[in-house]
Design a protein that fits this description.
Layout (H helix, E strand, L loop, with lengths): L10 H10 L21 H19 L4 E2 L2 H10 L2 E6 L3 E7 L5 E7 L6 H8 L2 E4 L4 H28 L14 E3 L1 H4 L10 H15 L1 H5 L8 E6 L5 H12 L3 E5 L10 H15 L3 E6 L18 H14 L7 E7 L7 H4 L6 E5 L4 H11 L11 H6 L6 H17 L7 H13 L10 H20 L6 E5 L10 E4 L10 H22 L7 H16 L34 H28 L1 H14 L1 E3 H13 L4 H10 L4
């Protein structure tokens, strides 16, 4: 049942929700961040109760004048007293003042045996006061007891309420989405068609379980979604629940483990207990590697809390009835560190790989995210997809949002291709900083540095085409950049392509050395990337003629994240290590000399391109294509210079 909004609730319902410290039906949805959360405290009730009691007594009881007992007796003798109430410890009543108005008074009672006789003589009406012992008992014992019972019950309730409650420490901190609350279907997922087709069978089982059970078929108990961060693993799991129309239990692997021993296992039991009550449903565990890391990797021992939690998860999955209609889905980007017991048949039976989208997938993803954006008719999403190789779904969603922000900054009515290009530059290179003060000498060095990268890429057959050259500072330390875009999606790299990539990286430093006879620190990142490529060629890809087709990298690596596992181990001799270092140095030195030869031959073009950058600060589009064509054809650049001089403004 869908939860009512706060506006649909009555004032009493809203008050009770705040009293319980919850705003819904068991945490099925997170609170609206736009509404300020009201923190209720029991002290509000206590202070209000005391204030009301005092005001009631103060306003209900008439104002009485305190007088001495001697003055009271004198008033009796003078006939001013009208009515009296005699209490064991005090006397209060009414008297007439000099103006004849009736006033109230009170005085302390003393031992006086003649008082009653005096009152009788003066004809004063008086009455006694009978103390109610039951009322005193109630006020002195039962009322405080009731107050403490209420306070204790309230405290226990607050301690156990919500996922952060002390008494709910063993409860699974799961977010439960009802059938209508998921709101995501396969139409909202693009670029991963193979993964969607794999999971359609899961949807069919949840919708029509008899279709499989009558043939004796068994649906997989668990589905493991494997892919790089941002590829849409969580989105795809929600889409399965939305298509099947079943409840969706979402929890992170890190939310099971606490500092208290046994809490994680208790939460696993509670999660599966809740799921069985609402079957058919889907349990989704995000970041499974936080919970399911292979046992025995902990250097402090094998009986820590995380391993106990993992053991309980394995037991619960084993005891699962496949006919119950509860399916477990999990997502991770580091499957190589998961415990083998999790991946065996009967637990996570099916592994669905979610790869980075190709150009067609990126175009489909852009179409989904651009539905709510006002695009200019000239916007070509296919061309934008070509500008974003390696982008995943989250990157593309951010790209569309950044383009809309760029258009909003200039008060535009629609988002244009230039806005998308600016968004790509910002995501790849960082924020543009035109106001950064750079002296003319450094600006000239940067211009020749980027020209060296670009010219080297233009002259090499296996290098990616140059799309843009800029000497506008971006990000934290980038003083300029050369943007290369591949003509198609690639999944393999040949040795020739890797060597050409090395030469392009070294082109900036070589250009500085040729033109200025000196080198700067601007090539630090280029040298680091070049060294990594050369090392991988020798130690991982077996591309060294001297060392042969062997691999020397024994460290297991994630296929989706550039992270190693554990410490690096070396399983080769010192002589081999020396040979590896020599081969890396040789490969880089040969690439350096080849790049030097290319740029010496293209010295005239290097000078011309650097002057264009110093004048325009960036070059792209048709002007860059014309320059590249003439460089490759060996023609002069007088025509290009005329085009650039007549263009005006920044390119």
């Amino acid at each position: 049942m869908a939860k009512k909004s706060d506006e649909e609730l009555s004032p009493m319902d809203r008050f009770m929700n705040r009293l319980r410290g919850s705003s819904g039906d068991g945490g099925s949805q997170s609170p609206d961040p736009s509404q300020k959360k009201v923190h209720f405290s029991l002290w509000y009730f206590i202070v209000a109760l005391l204030l009301i009691t005092w005001l009631q007594g103060y306003l209900a009881e008439p104002q009485r004048e305190k007088i001495p007992y001697s003055e009271f007796k004198q008033w009796v003798r003078d006939g001013k007293i009208e009515n009296l109430v005699l209490q064991p410890d005090k006397i209060h009543g009414e008297f007439k003042d000099d103006k004849g108005q009736t006033q109230h008074f009170v005085t302390l009672r003393v031992e006086d045996s003649d008082l009653v006789q005096l009152l009788d003589q003066k004809g004063v009406k008086y009455t006694g006061y009978a103390e109610n012992k039951w009322v005193g008992l109630l006020l002195s014992w039962l009322l405080p007891l009731a107050f403490f019972i209420f306070f204790w019950s309230f405290l226990i309730k607050r301690m156990g309420a919500g996922p952060q409650g002390v008494l709910s420490v063993g409860k699974a901190r799961v977010k439960i989405f009802a059938e209508k609350e998921v709101g995501i279907t396969f139409d909202d997922v693009a670029g991963i068609d193979e993964a969607k087709s794999e999971l359609e069978e899961i949807v069919q089982f949840l919708k029509y379980p008899d279709k499989f059970q009558k043939l004796g078929g068994r649906i997989p108990k668990g589905v493991l979604l494997v892919g790089a961060p941002g590829t849409g693993k969580t989105l795809l799991a929600k889409a399965v629940a939305g298509e099947a129309g079943v409840p969706f239990f979402s929890i992170s692997g890190s939310e099971f483990v606490e500092m208290f021993v046994g809490v994680g296992a208790a939460r696993v039991r509670d999660l599966f207990g809740q799921a069985k009550e609402q079957a058919p449903c889907i349990i989704f565990i995000d970041e499974l590697d936080a919970l399911g890391k292979a046992r025995g990797l902990n250097p402090m021992g094998g009986h820590d809390e995380r391993e106990q939690t993992l053991n309980q998860l394995l037991v619960e999955m084993d005891g699962f009835d496949p006919r119950s209609g509860v399916i477990i889905m999990a997502a991770t980007n580091r499957p190589e560190i998961l415990d083998p017991a999790l991946l065996r048949p009967g637990r996570f039976d099916r592994h669905v790989a979610i790869d980075k989208p190709d150009i067609r997938g990126r175009e489909a993803i852009l179409k989904i995210h651009a539905k709510e954006v006002k695009l200019d008719p000239e916007v070509d999403l296919k061309k934008i997809a070509g500008l974003t190789p390696g982008f995943v779904g989250a990157d593309l969603a951010n790209l569309v949002n950044e383009a809309a922000l760029v258009a909003a900054r200039r008060d535009a009515e629609t988002v244009t291709m230039a806005d998308f290009q600016g968004a790509v530059d910002r995501i790849i290179g960082g924020l543009e900083k035109k106001n950064r003060a750079i002296n003319p000498k450094e600006k000239e060095i940067v211009a020749y540095h980027e020209s060296g990268h670009a010219l080297t890429a233009m002259m090499l057959p296996h290098a990616d085409p140059v799309n843009k050259i800029s000497i506008i500072p971006r990000g934290i330390a980038a003083l300029g950049y050369t943007q290369q875009l591949p003509t198609e999606d690639r999944y393999l790299m040949t040795r020739g392509e890797l060597l050409d990539r090395l030469k392009v990286l070294l082109g900036g430093r070589v250009s500085e050395e040729i033109v200025f006879g000196d080198i700067s620190t601007g090539a630090m990142n280029d040298l680091q990337r070049a060294t990594d490529i050369a090392r991988s060629m020798v130690t991982e890809y077996g591309m060294s003629d001297r060392l042969g087709p062997l691999t020397y990298a024994r460290e297991p690596r994630s296929a989706y994240m550039d992270l190693g596992i554990g410490s690096r181990t070396r399983e080769y001799s010192e002589q081999t290590a020396e040979g590896i270092d020599e081969e890396i140095s040789r490969i880089i030195e040969e690439a350096y000399q080849a790049t030097r030869s290319i740029l010496k031959d293209q010295r005239e073009n290097l000078e011309r391109l650097a002057r264009i950058l110093l004048e325009r600060e960036s070059i792209e589009g048709d002007e860059l294509k014309t320059f590249i064509a003439e460089v490759k054809a060996g023609h002069g650049h007088r025509e290009l210079a005329n085009i650039l001089s007549s263009a005006g403004g920044e390119i």
